Amino acid sequence: MKNMWGKELVFPEDVYYSEDLLWVKDLGANKVRLGICDLAVKSVKTLNFVKITSKIGAQVTKGESLGHVETTKGVWDIIVPLSGTVVEVNPLVTKGSANPIVTDPYGNGWLVELETAGDAGSELKALREGSDEKTKKWLIEKAEDNVPLSMMEEDD
Questions:
Q1: From CA 8, how far away is CA 103, in angstroms rounded?
Q2: Strands 65-71 and 59-60: what pairing?
Q3: What's this model's pTM, rounded to 2 decimal places?
Q4: Residue 60's domain is classified under what CATH number?
Q5: Which stretch of DSSP H or E encloses residue 141?
Q6: Is 70 inside any structural domain?
Q7: Residue 71's closest CA among 146, 10, 142?
Q8: Mapping DSSP to helix (H, G, I), strand (E, B) and coil, where does residue 137 land?
């Protein structure tokens, strides 16, 4: 699936998605990794800058701001989708570079790792599971709301 600028949209099934278009990957042992969903990245022409304001050791609560991103459309807060302690901040984005997020949002473009208090599974259940058909439909609807899609098939 591509957006109107011809950028391919990717939605891995092994992550969870928040309403604010963040992804969460369960790393086991009560640790999760967070990043910005490909849809959020590609719904703007340019992602200019990222600032993670939560430092290692900081306690974050679901619904709080973890930092912000600056785009061609404006500035928006990164709202943490579950509570925990920041145990790692991606060194590739600590200087504000958005490039890893743009080029590899689910790999090198991750933002932080959190250690959850207790079982991460209970908070993950409140998010949308990537492999769920309802989640796939929701992502397509969100994509249409944010940036019209080009659903034309490409010639091989």
A1: 11
A2: unpaired
A3: 0.82
A4: 2.40.50.100
A5: helix 133-146
A6: yes
A7: 146
A8: helix
